[in-house]
Amino acid sequence: MAARGKSGKAKLSQAERRAQAFDMRKRGHKYDEIGEALGITKQAANRLVLNMLEKYAQDTYAEAGDMLRLELARLDELHQKLWEQFQDGNMEVVPKILSAMDRRVKLLGIEPPQKVAPTNPDGSQALQPVLNVYVGGTESPPSSEAE
Questions:
Q1: Which residue of 33, 47, 54, 81 has the fewest C-beta atoms within 10 A of its own C-beta?
Q2: Is 0.90 surpassed by the pTM of this model?
Q3: pLDDT digit string, tens, across residues 129-138
Q4: CB 52 within 8 A of CB 62
Q5: pLDDT at position 147, please?
Q6: Contact call for residues 119 and 126 (beta carbons, < 8 A)
Q7: Which residues partner with 4 through β-bridges?
Q8: What are phi and psi of 130, to 5 degrees?
Q9: What is the mean pLDDT of residues 98-107?
Q10: How many Å is the Cα radius of gyration of the chain?
Q11: CB 105 within 8 A of CB 111
Q12: How much is the pLDDT for 14?
């Protein structure tokens, strides 16, 4: 049973207040509304929400590390099975082995991402001239007629 404060209202634990503040903020409440509902200042409500966001970020970061280890373990197993097939003379698995190796490199960040030049959706024109048309530049708009 929750302890009662001077006002007769049940006092919430710090974790309960943090969770309630976070839930109210997710639903769009302002910090002063959260503070009023919890009997605290809007600054304290802001701190509760920020603490919850920080905890969420830490948990998410930890889960991402766990997920990375899981995916690497799956790649290890896949690579081992494909390698056995390769050693038995099955050359058709070579692209799959290379694909698994490529995926490992990407997951580990060993190879930097490739730079891709921004273009319009169909790839026929560099993005900068397209942007100039729509933000008041001097370029003329792309022709809609087939040339």
A1: 54
A2: no
A3: 545 555 555 5
A4: no
A5: 44
A6: yes
A7: 10
A8: -65, -45
A9: 93
A10: 28
A11: yes
A12: 86
Per-residue pLDDT tens over the stretch 3-49 = 544 544 556 788 899 999 999 999 999 999 999 999 999 999 999 99
And the tokens for 27? Answer: 């639903």
Taking the C-alpha atoms of residue 103 and residue 109, their distance in angstroms, rounded to an integer, is: 10
- Residue 52, judged by CB atoms within 10 A of its CB (0-12, 13-18, 19+), counts as buried
Kindly state the tokens that stand for 30. Answer: 């302002």
Residue 8 Ramachandran class (φ > 0 left, ψ -120 to 50 alpha, else beta): left
Residue that the structure tokens 């048309």 belong to: 133
Q: Residue 54 has which token pair?
A: 């920080």
